[in-house]
Design brief:
O-antigen_ligase-rel_domated, Alpha-Beta Plaits, WaaL-like, 817 residues, ligase activity, single chain, extended, four-stranded antiparallel beta sheet, mainly alpha, ligase
């Protein structure tokens, strides 16, 4: 096949695909959902080495919706109404980029959020009819059900070496205690996120099994629901089991047929109990300690997964406590985790992810992001609940079943997100798009099924009299926002100029900053892992009670200590410093000056090394170098005071004590030996002759023998004590010589800490950040003025709407009277 033929064939296929998509757009939507939910773009890249198709899907689908809207074949009214809210989501993230530490990570998060918001709006724009919603639900059920079936077949046959082109994977991991086993991961690299995807999808095939008009689709949906449920258990995910319980409880609350659903849940629980391994449930019960450890102060022990999870969650709580309103910034948890892990002695080997969606949002976006996210989700759930109550007289309608199922899917996602971070945000936005679209379609259908009110039968002349000319003000939030944008364009522009001007003035008033940096290299040894006298010499890495990370955490705490900063200012004789303060420097106490000076320092660990970096930022470059040099000198001095204590006095006192004890033992030995000689002299050798002498005094030989044995025992005991003391003296002398050699090496050859790199003070470039801050302030000012004006119009319109309804009610009562 020639190149020209290949190009022509590719063009024909592309044109045919475009024509099909323009006439049947749901084919493109369903194909997009299937590719997205099965993680096909990542599988093509990592499993088969092919280029990613994910970058082409979003703009293609967006262009398709735009063309069909221009051709008046689509009416994305709901998507257009949600556009300001989605813009607010993006603005909250984008405005934080100029102030974060790692701008690349923040930009990556913002760009990914922009793609997901576009996907959300496009899906909501396409899913505008009940038929399209049912087609989407069938696609999602069959897609996830097929992936789950591959995983179940893989587990049942034990052929974990076959991954079905990357769509059915498994990992041999720790389960509980000493138990290890296979955990299904499906098309994703982690079993927990695969379980979350399965649980989120599970209510949809169950709804189709009950409400679909085709018996074949009902049977297929039932099969998909069973294999999805079995796959959830085989993932051994504790969060998924918790989500199952939450979804089951929510189903009972939302259902009008509890007597029919309750037996189904009992059958499902029996199926889970029969299929699930015992270790799965033991692992679930063991996971209860996560909450206890997270809220308590006790040491983290036990399950390694729990240890890592609690470590990152504690770090997220610390970040939120330190930055409660705006957080540390989008995508900044991984950047800050190492510092918090060192500071609070957490697990350094844990993956730097919050492992909780809510803690991740709280740590990175603060209360602003948390309120925005939870407000959006809870508002959608509240509107769905009201819609279901409003249409309770026709609760058997298919769209009502689907709305209830998607509502349960969102609840399941929120429940599992308690212990899972936002690693795959596209899944969440896809399900939320289906939820919002189903809510809009169901609400419209419910309104059509609701009988007309009496006020709609009012005579035309009565309505004309009741309508006030002032009722032209907007009474919905969307119309108020649009009206505010039209009517207050000049005010919005002036607000942007005013806030941008304030930011510009603040930038110009900020003095030029200079930054100097030093890196400290550590060789941890005897000062952290001491060897007591007479103890056998060992390598510092053996039998230690603290880890290398804890040693670095100790050094970081010492560098950040109040005492080192106080010693620095004392050495400089309390100079006049350009400190950030609320009161004049003359009125500050010594403690306040030390605290203000500490804020000039940025102490961190150099990634992957036993080095700590110390950076100081100050308006004067010479003073910056002097401050940092004096600070490091004070730190070294303080460290020597704590670690490098002169032990010669200790060794001398111990040796003198042992010598005095040995001399006392020798004196006692001499006394016992003299006493023994005297006892021996009492025994006369003639006593043993056959002819006793007449003048001989009788001698008790038995008594003398007992005295000799007793004295021999005392002499032997004292000789052993003397031997012990002399052995200790020899060992202590060897230990003293070893300490002297170690001290000489530390002081003269290789100190345990030294400055490995020193960067002189250099000007900090702030032009890019200043421009970004000015633009951010201008955008924030425009949004603030627009929001205030829109709120004013909305409140005014709501008040006039109330007056209009009262007038119409009075007009209805007058003909009756």
């Amino acid at each position: 096949m020639t190149l020209v033929t290949l190009i022509i064939l590719s063009a024909v296929i592309a044109c045919g695909t475009v024509v099909l998509a323009l006439h049947w757009p749901m084919l493109a939507v369903c194909l997009f959902l299937g590719i997205t939910l099965t993680n096909t773009p990542a599988i093509l890249v990592h499993e088969h080495g092919l280029p990613s198709i994910g970058t082409l899907l979003v703009p293609t689908l967006t262009a398709l919706l735009a063309v069909r809207t221009l051709l008046r074949r689509e009416k994305p009214v709901t998507a257009l109404r949600l556009l300001p809210l989605m813009g607010l989501f993006f603005v909250v993230i984008a405005l934080r980029i100029p102030w974060v530490t790692n701008t690349e990570a923040a930009i990556s998060v913002a760009s990914e959020l922009a793609k997901n918001l576009v996907i959300f709006l496009v899906l909501v724009g396409f899913l505008t009819t009940p038929e399209r919603l049912r087609m989407t639900a069938r696609t999602m059920s069959v897609t996830i059900g097929g992936v789950a079936a591959l995983s179940v077949y893989q587990y049942a046959t034990g052929r974990f070496d076959i991954n079905f082109w990357g769509y059915a994977n498994a990992a041999y991991l720790h389960i509980q205690g000493e138990t290890h086993g296979w955990r299904l991961t499906g098309p994703l690299p982690d079993a927990n996120f695969f379980a979350q995807l399965l649980l989120t999808t599970l209510p949809i095939p169950i709804a189709l099994m009950i409400s679909d008009q085709r018996w074949a689709m009902r049977a297929l949906a039932a099969i998909c629901a069973v294999v999805i449920l079995v796959s959830i258990v085989l993932t051994n995910s504790r969060g998924a089991l918790l989500g199952l319980v939450v979804v089951a409880f929510a189903t009972l609350l939302l259902s009008h047929r509890r007597t029919f659903i309750l037996p189904g849940f009992l059958v499902g629980m029996a199926l889970v109990a029969l299929v699930g391994p015992i270790a799965t449930f033991e692992r679930a019960f063991a996971g209860i300690e996560t909450a206890r450890l997270l809220l308590g102060d006790e040491d983290i022990t036990g399950d390694p997964a729990v240890i890592q999870r609690v470590s990152v969650m504690r770090a997220a709580l610390r970040m939120f406590a330190d930055n409660p309103f705006l957080g540390v910034g989008p995508g900044q948890f991984a950047t800050h985790y190492e510092v918090y892990a060192l500071r609070y002695a957490l697990d350094m080997t844990a993956p730097p992810a919050a492992h909780s969606l809510y803690l991740e949002i709280a740590a990175e976006q603060g209360l602003v992001g948390l309120i925005l996210f939870m407000g959006f989700v809870l508002t959608a759930l509240t509107l769905a609940a009201r819609t279901l109550r409003h249409g309770h007289q026709d609760h058997a309608a298919p769209d009502t079943y689907l709305l209830r199922a998607i509502m349960l899917s969102v609840i399941g996602y929120l429940a599992t997100s308690i212990f899972l971070h936002d690693a795959y945000p596209r899944f969440f936005w896809a399900f939320m798009a289906l939820f919002i679209a189903t809510l809009a379609v169901t609400a419209a259908a419910s309104d059509k099924r609701t009988p007309l009110s009496r006020s709609s039968d009012m005579p035309e002349h009565s309505q004309e009299r009741a309508v006030s000319p002032a009722i032209r003000q907007p009474h919905t939030l969307q119309s108020a926002a649009a009206a505010a944008l039209r009517k207050s364009m000049v005010l919005i522009l002036l607000g942007a100029i005013a806030f941008g001007g304030l930011a510009t003035y603040q930038t110009l008033q900020t003095p030029v900053q200079y930054s100097t940096d030093s890196k400290l290299l550590y060789r941890f040894g005897r000062e952290y892992f001491p060897i007591t006298p007479t103890e056998v010499r060992r390598n510092w890495g053996e039998n230690i009670t603290v880890s290398l990370d804890n040693a670095l955490a100790t050094e970081l705490q010492l560098l950040s200590s109040h005492k080192v900063a106080e010693m620095t200012l004392d050495k400089l004789e309390n100079p006049s410093l350009a400190l950030e303060q609320t009161a004049p420097e003359a009125e500050m106490t010594d403690a306040e000056r030390v605290t203000a000076f500490s804020k000039l320092l940025d102490i961190r660990r150099v990634q992957g090394t036993t080095m700590l970096g110390v950076r100081l930022t100050y308006p004067d470059p010479k003073m910056a170098d002097q401050l940092l040099q004096t600070f490091l000198e004070s730190y070294m001095q303080r460290r020597d005071m704590l670690f490098h204590v002169d032990a010669s006095a200790y060794f001398s006192s111990q040796q003198e004590s042992l010598k005095a004890k040995d001399e006392a033992v020798q004196a006692e030995l001499n006394r016992l030996r003299v006493e023994r000689s005297a006892v021996e002299s009492q025994a006369d050798v003639t006593e043993w002759t056959l002819t006793p002498r007449l003048d001989h005094i009788p001698v008790d030989m038995a008594q003398i023998t007992r005295q000799l044995l007793w004295l021999d025992g005392l002499i032997d005991q004292q000789e052993k004590r003397s031997e012990v003391f002399r052995t200790r003296l020899i060992a202590l002398e060897a230990e003293r010589q070893d300490w002297e050699m170690s001290r000489a090496y530390t002081q003269l050859v290789g100190p345990t800490v030294e400055i490995a790199d020193r960067t002189p003070a250099a000007r900090v470039s702030t032009s890019t950040r200043s421009i970004a801050q000015i633009l951010s302030a201008a955008i924030a000012g425009a949004i603030l003025i627009w929001g205030v004006f829109a709120a004013h119009l909305w409140l005014r319109g709501a008040r006039e709407e109330i007056l209009f309804r009262r007038a119409r009610a009075e007009a209805n009562r007058k003909p009756d009277a």
